Amino acid sequence: MQPLSYQSTGVNYDVLDKFKLACQRAAGKTVDLLAAHEVSEPAGIRGESAYLIETPEEYLAHVEEGLGTKNLVADALLSLHPARGADGYFNIGIDTVAAIVNDLLTVGALPMVVAMHAAVGSATWFENEKRAKALADGFAEGCRRAGAVWGGGETPTLSGVVEPGTVVLLAAGAWSRALARMAGHELPVRPVRGWIALVAPGPPVLRHAVYEAEYTAPEPPVPGGPVTLADLAEGTVAEAGPPPVHALGIHQNADGTVVVGASRSAALHEGAESLAGLRGNARRACAMVPGIADREVAATWTGLRPFSHDGLPYIGVLDDGLAVCAGHGAEGILTGAGSGRLAAELVLGREPYTDVTPFRPDR
Ligand SMILES: Cc1cc2nc3c(=O)[nH]c(=O)nc-3n(C[C@H](O)[C@H](O)[C@H](O)COP(=O)(O)OP(=O)(O)OC[C@H]3O[C@@H](n4cnc5c(N)ncnc54)[C@H](O)[C@@H]3O)c2cc1C
Fold first, then answer.
1. Ligand 1: residues whose CB is within 6 Å?
2. pTM of structure
3. Residue ranges making up the domain that contains 318
4. Domain count, the chain
């Protein structure tokens, strides 16, 4: 989990305090307006946690309190425990009232009425009814404990204000590591090369897709692992590229073409640094499906699979304004829809449809 701090949530008291002082100076110029109501303010009350008005019979106190970061704790709990996480909002409801009332008590006043001001970046926040209800129930419970009535409130939707700008989603496949580094994050996505040959259209030769269950045993440098300087120094890696492993994957398309794969090898750079994977795929296909050995090759290509350190993609928020969805390895076409949905839900602050723990970038 990302560590939470005031600073990381955008709360900077050096900047805030300057604004607060400017407000106090401007507000002080309105004091003369109290005279028309035959009340006054006690000397020195400006800058205290609560504002006091002095009437001939009594003091009246007023506070306005905003709590803008505790929800991040509740959201973190929600993502860790989707089933029970909404409970965190109940506690935040109580806590919010407690913080308001605490400010009031500093001037010796007793709470009589509390109002809720719940600003959201988007009305979609309320779509998670369990979470919204937990917050409301917690706020009511806080009022009950403080002996004050919940008198009303305001729920502004501040699109683009509470959540300013956009979130950048880093989804650059095998190129994600270098981009993440630019933002100060280490994301161990390593490129694993694969080769494919496309055999020209011909009569039916395969009734099923054929996949070998396991890849051949790897030699260092292992696909998905690091290529070390020693790997370059010894053997033929520098000249011939890292050695491939193979598992035949072959199927015939409706137009009669046949797709022949699959190889995996650690990759040093983007270009076709070694054709050994292509040769190995062809050899296996010829040996196991001899009927296509004489067919013409229509095309060949190579691509980089983005391998994570443990085979699962990294999906989550890296920073304020930066999220990631990368590292899908050999199955990103199959899994892309699900991981894309999860990334969107995390970025939008919605309840994730599945447990995010296995995909957390900091796991
Ligand atoms: C030979 C081969 C066979 C495969 N077979 C299968 C299969 O059968 N089934 C399966 O599920 N998966 C398969 N895969 C894996 C699948 O292709 C990947 O898992 C999937 O493409 C990863 O999706 P992605 O969106 O995370 O990354 P990518 O598809 O790699 O997309 C990343 C994109 O980011 C772009 N990009 C990079 N840098 C920048 C930048 N600086 N600015 C802007 N854009 C940038 C890239 O151009 C690319 O378009 C295969 C892969 C290979 C190579």
1. 171-175, 179, 194, 196, 261-262, 303, 305-306, 326, 328-334, 336
2. 0.62
3. 168-174+311-359
4. 3
